[in-house]
Amino acid sequence: MAAAARPRRNSAPCTTVSRGRSAVVVHAMGTSTPQQQDAGSLDVSGAVVQPSFRQTPWAAEAAVAAAGGDRAAARIAFVSESGTCRCVLAAAAFRAALAARDPRLAGLVEVECRATKDYCLGDGPELLAARVASELGLELAQGYAAQQFKESRDIVDFDVVLVMDKFTAADVLREVSVFDTIKTWGKANYSSKVRRLGEFNPAAASAAAKKDLGGADIQDALYGNVGGEEELEAVRQAAAAIQQSCDGLADFLVTVDQRHQQQQQQAQQGADGDAGAGGEAGALAASGRLGDSLTAAVRELEAMDWLVPPMLQAR
């Protein structure tokens, strides 16, 4: 039998005290004593207090329910680390791809960008991103300013959240997955709204690429800030992958919309709203909103165990 690990000297005991909606973690300095172990008599005069706050998505759900028919037919979020390069190019490429396929549908879908980090909030598109967009004939949103992804609001407000790589997926799911564990009623599945944009790239859509941790990633072209022609070429390569992925995403949405319209017509004719469609997609189509059908279709994509947080994986 392996020997028990020896405790580190001067390790700090940790006491968690619940106060309202926050948890206050108290790390007492020095060696633990019986008095310090008793939360009622703990001397915190030399302690480090680290409050941890987390908002739930319940308020956002109530707001969405109250909005009812005033919501857009579908809402899609593109998420990158800084919110100033890849997601900006993705939003522009997707708008162009969808408009080329179905102008009516393009007018119904709202597209926004979000950042997982806060160091570029309020900034416009990167100059290289704007340059490459111009080369490709893509129109960037006027007056764009980077916003940070707010988990408790955005995971409810958007019908699908498309991240650029495994790192942005981890940033988003770190908080979103918590909601799935604490909501013990109804059907949550917030985490299943999150997918990588590169999964819709026909060139990377093989089963092997889906299972590969980085097989469908769109790399951060500005990582390392090498500058010059090398960085410009990296942005061009990322933009090419983004365009291919957005073409595939637009085709996917057109197919979802066609199925959604068929189900709505059947419902209006008095037929079963689930006829001709199985699973959650058929059930949610009865809501009359394209975004619900889009969410259901995304949830029916092939599951990727690596994208599912460990606490939510099947045992």
TrEMBL record:
Residues 261-272 have a biased composition (Low complexity). Residues 260-282 are annotated as: Disordered. InterPro entries: LMW_PTPase, Ptyr_pPase, Ptyr_pPase_sf. GO terms for molecular function: protein tyrosine phosphatase activity. It holds the Pfam family LMWPc. Residues 74-252 form the Phosphotyrosine protein phosphatase I domain. Its EC number is 3.1.3.48. This is protein-tyrosine-phosphatase. It comes from Chlorella variabilis.
